[in-house]
Structures are given as structure tokens and as C-alpha cells.
Amino acid sequence: MALDPSLLLAVSALSLAIILLRRLVKGSTVHSPPLLASFPPGPPTLPLLGNLHQIPQDYGYLTYADWARSTAASSDGLLGLKIGPTARIVILSRWRQVRDLLDARGAIYSSRPRLPAAEYVLPPPGDIHPAFLAYGPKWRRTRRAVTEFMKEDALEKLLPIQDAETTQLMWDLLQDSRNSSSPVDDGRYQDHALRAFAGIILASEDWAAILAGGAFPPLDVFPWIRHIPDVLTPWSGWRARAADVRRRQQGLYEELYAETLERVRGGKGRDSYFARLIGEQEKAERDEKDKEAFTQLEMTYLAGFMLEGGSDTTAMAFLTLVLAMAAFPEIQKEAQAEIDSVLGAESMPHSVAGKELPFLRACFLESLRWRPGFTMAIPHTTTADDAYKGYFIPRGTTVLINTWAIHHDPDEYEEPDEFRPSRFLANRFGAKESRSNENNENEQGEAQSGTGASSLPLAPGEAEKDMKGRRESYAFGAGRRLCPGQKMAEMSVMLSMAKLLWAFDMRSAGQPLDTDVRTAFTNSILMGPKKFPVVFAVRSEAKAQVIRDEWKRADAFLARFE
């Protein structure tokens, strides 16, 4: 029997209505947005401007954390900002958001937004700096090169250099404390530290100045600004500043590359990783069929990036620890007691392991949590539409990790603004015990998402619960663009602090040291302590003599690289 066409049409219409209704309510798949899903909430907007007029120029991470708390009831702190008529920003202020999006959905959350500042700072075509490469084949090739350099066996080869450089740092501090007319070091220690950690902070600070809020016009929102003379805009001189950064950065990178090339050709470091890369690059110049080899310009920026990325976070973490040890002497004494007990009071440490020095490692993790070098991670961008907890995140949305907000979440950390290393002994993640138990119970049976937490042995403590997908620290980012140098940074800071605490007592020059984030730390993307007066007092004359003897050996070793 033939079906009545009108009945067939009615059934089809009803079926379509049911499908649409289900889509309106919950979405057709886990990640597809409901038709009426809204962008994550944020402050009230203005026509055309959106939230552009509210973007803070100073301490943005603090403002964004406050805004996220105001949306906590409706979106659990997921913050959405509208910049101009079309640009969208989502700020992640909870570790679960980072796990669920950047770790678990890395295929669409791993690219970089187009940064107009990069177009004016980097040489054409602009996709040369590894930190700003779009997610794709070129980024993967560069990432492979970087991770190869950061393998455990490669890091072991770097240990003698780290040991010598940190011994040089102890010698410099000893000389200053003995030769100065005042026992107070008013900032020379910072110069020594920067030199010890590769001395390329300059490039990072230049980037921080360019990318800081209000320093560069929002060309991605209002591209027509580039056609207006500088003097007629609120960003007067932005072109000249960008050109100066480009000249300084490219000059520094080229100088570093030229020095490395000269050493390799002179027979020094022939078995090093960079020597192999240089050999591959020169071979590619002779054989144009090798598409995988780097060009000389790419090699130049790769080398600069690796030194730059390894020095900024490392130096800031070290200087923050110096401030914390001088400001909180009871913590300093506990760390010194551990070092003397485990490594001995007579010999200078030459290598350290976190499992041997759990309190020192807890101090390192707490410094990253308490005052992270990068309060906001380098932006990610989505390459496809997505939905998360009922909210629509469109393709091309800029996604930011508010590292400060995650590390100072009062729901996760007891007294988050206190420097309290013991929290990482009681719990691997430094979290409240009640929060740890709750998180673990809620996640039983869920699939492991992303790369998960660190695979290092769990810290002792009855409160320990392994929270799936959580990281000990978000100071190194997350997802597929997680900083590959975090192990190297930990090795370097741990060794430097072990030597410093073994050799010196650090104390304030009289007045209590300021540790407030608004007054004691720099107001930039790369945050670190401002110069502060501190006394470095060698703990004994015997230790001073050990430093002298060790420095002679270190100086002879480092001379091989000059």
C-alpha cells in the first residue's frame, strides 16, 4: 500500500523537529555546540568595542582572576571576552579546564593566534620563531628538534656545564661579599644570576615589552590602525619600538649562532646536538632535495629560542627563591638542614635529585606556584568550533591560561598567597587535602586525558591522591605545546639553590623584605622580583675555601668553551 504523501511529509517534519530539539538542548555529539549555546560569560560589553575598553594595561592576570571568580557560579570560572566586533578570548582559570581542553583536545587547541606584533618583530614571512609557529608540519619538525635536545641523555651531557656555571655564580657572590665596602648586595646578584642562566633574558624582556597590554595597537581587531601615523594614535612610536626589538633580537640570535658555528668548525663540541643540526643544514644547502633540514635563518632562531626559553623561567624561578629564602629564614634553615644531612656539609653539591632532597624540590615547586614567571601563558587558538560545559567556543578563539589564577585558586590551595613549601610534601600537587580526596573520588573511572601529571614518584604524605590529568605546576604551560625544557629548568634551579644554600646564609638588610606581587615584582608578562637588598654571608671559612678550590676547576673547564 502506497504511503500518503502528506503523512510522509508530516513524519519527516516531526523527525526533523525532534532532531533539532535535541540539538538545542544538548548538542548532537560530546563536542558539538548546541544551536543556542552561548559564548562563556564575562563582563558587560559595549557595541563594537566589546570588552576592549576594559582590558587592563597593568596586572591583567589579577583582573582576569577577579572576573573569573565573578563567573564561578554560572561557568565555574570559565571566562569569555569579546574584543571588537569579532575577536573572542577564552581565559582558563582552573586546572580542570586546562586538562579538558588543551590536554584532552590538543588537536584543535594547539595552534597560535596571529600576533600582529610578531609581523613587525620577526623577519618575513613571520613564521620563524618556534614559540609563535602555527600548529602544523613546520611546528612538528621544530618540536622534534627541540625535544631531541631535551632528552635525558642530552641533559646529562649538559650537567658538567651547569655545574661549572653555578660554581662560577658562587664565586661571584663570594667575591662580592668579601670585596664590597658594604655587606649588602643591592642587586649585583641579579647580574650574576642572569649570566649563569645563559644571559639571554634581554630577548625575553623585549618580547614582554612588546606584548604587554597597551604597548602595541590591537591590529588584529582594528587593522586600519596600521595606516594611521603613529603620532595620531595612543601607541605613539610603536613601529620604532618593534623595529628596535627586531634589530636587537635578530642581532643577538645571529651572534649566538655565529659563535656556535665557529666553535664547531674549530673542532669544539663536534659531537654536540647543535653540531649535528648545523651539519644537516649545510648538507641541505648542497642538496636541495632535503626538505626536512632547517635553513640558516631557521637554525638561528631555533638556537636563540632554546637559549631564551631555558633562561627566562629558570632565572626568574631562581631569583624568586632567593627572595623567599631571605624573606622566610625558617624555611631557609630547613632547606639547609636537608642539604647538609643528605649531601654533607664539607663538599659542594655537584648534582642533585628531587627524590633525595624532597624539601628543596618542594621549595622549587612552591616558587613556581607562588610567583610564576609567566603569569599568563603564550596564547593558544582554536582551529575548529568546540563546545565545553554547554558553552560555544568558536573557531579562531584565542585561549589563554591564567597561570596565576590556577596557582592561587583558594578552592585548591590553603592560604594561596603564602610561601609554604610544606604543602608539596603533604600533597603532590600542593592542594588542600579535602580537595584532593574530592577530586580523586569524582574522577574514578574516567579516561586519562592529555599527557597527564608528572611521572615522578609521589611525594610522601597521607594526603596524597593522584588527581588524573593534573600537573604539579602550570608554569610551563600545558597541552601539546607544553614547554619541553621544564626538566632542564628544574635541574638548573635545584643545583643552583643547593649550592647557594650549602654555601651562604641569605638575610634581609634590616627591614623585612617586600614580597607583594604588586610592589616587589616586575609588572610585565615575564614576572620576576625587582632588585632587593640582601646579605650573602658565607656559612664558614671552610666553605669559602671550598668555593675557591672548586672555582679554579670550573674556570679551567669553562675556558674550553671560550
Automatic annotation (TrEMBL):
Belongs to the cytochrome P450 family. Heme binds at residue 483. Transmembrane segments: none annotated. This is Cytochrome P450 3A24. PROSITE patterns: CYTOCHROME_P450. The keyword Chloroplast does not apply. Pfam families: p450. PANTHER family: CYTOCHROME P450 MONOOXYGENASE ALNH-RELATED (PTHR46300:SF2), P450, PUTATIVE (EUROFUNG)-RELATED-RELATED (PTHR46300). Residues 431-469 are annotated as: Disordered. SUPFAM superfamilies: Cytochrome P450. Its cofactor is heme. The keyword Iron applies. InterPro entries: Cyt_P450 (IPR001128), Cyt_P450_CS (IPR017972), Cyt_P450_E_grp-I (IPR002401), Cyt_P450_sf (IPR036396), Cytochrome_P450_fung (IPR050364). The lineage of its organism: Eukaryota, Fungi, Dikarya, Ascomycota, Pezizomycotina. It comes from the Eukaryota. Signal peptide: none annotated. One of its GO terms (molecular function) is heme binding. Keywords: Heme, Iron, Metal-binding, Monooxygenase, Oxidoreductase. Residues 445-454 have a biased composition (Polar residues). Gene3D superfamilies: Cytochrome P450.
